[in-house]
Amino acid sequence: MRTLILFTSATGSAEKYAKDIATALSGDVFPLKKFKWKTLPDYDLIIYGGWVMGGKIKGVDDFLSHYDEMEGKDVIIFSTGMVIPSKEGRKTLIDTNILDLYHVRYYQLRGSFDMSKLGFIQRSMIKMYFRQIEEDAEANPGYKALLDYVHTPLEYYDQEGVEKIISVAKKIESEKEAK
Question: How would you write the chain as a 3-class SS string?
Fold first, then answer.
């Protein structure tokens, strides 16, 4: 079984996760923008990872625009973001990104954050978002905690989440081999 891992990354978390998953599964890994879609038939399992901003998984629309070409293949999507993964956050991401319309497995991983690695527009949007959190007395304490990372990078690696994706991929592989 051949495995393909695609990613879109801003601060490096999705890329690191994608490369680590590719290493564990002996898969091929590419940035989404550099992948040649004509080679998609060569793969049995496709994994996509993207970072979250404003509730949207970056690159997922482009990735899913090729969903018809993935018919008969197993698809896993993961996202990385600053917030701690939760059931309600996962549901919100599934709903916002309309993942429930597709037959995919989805995993939410926590990522690192470094404001200095973002582009001007992304930095501006995040600063505006953080100002809204600061001014909102009712804001979730978890969101308020994010304010600390405006000036101090957050380094985080979700080993458990990565291992879960690898485990599921290996289970898919063993089930296909058993058929």
Answer: CCEEEEEECCCCHHHHHHHHHHHHHCCEEEEHHHCCHHHHHHCCEEEEEEEEECCEECCHHHHHCCHHHHCCCEEEEEEEECCCCCHHHHHHHHHHCCHHHCCCEEEEEECCECHHHCCHHHHHHHHHHHHHHHHCCCCCHHHHHHHHHCCCCECCCCHHHHHHHHHHHHHHHHHHHHC
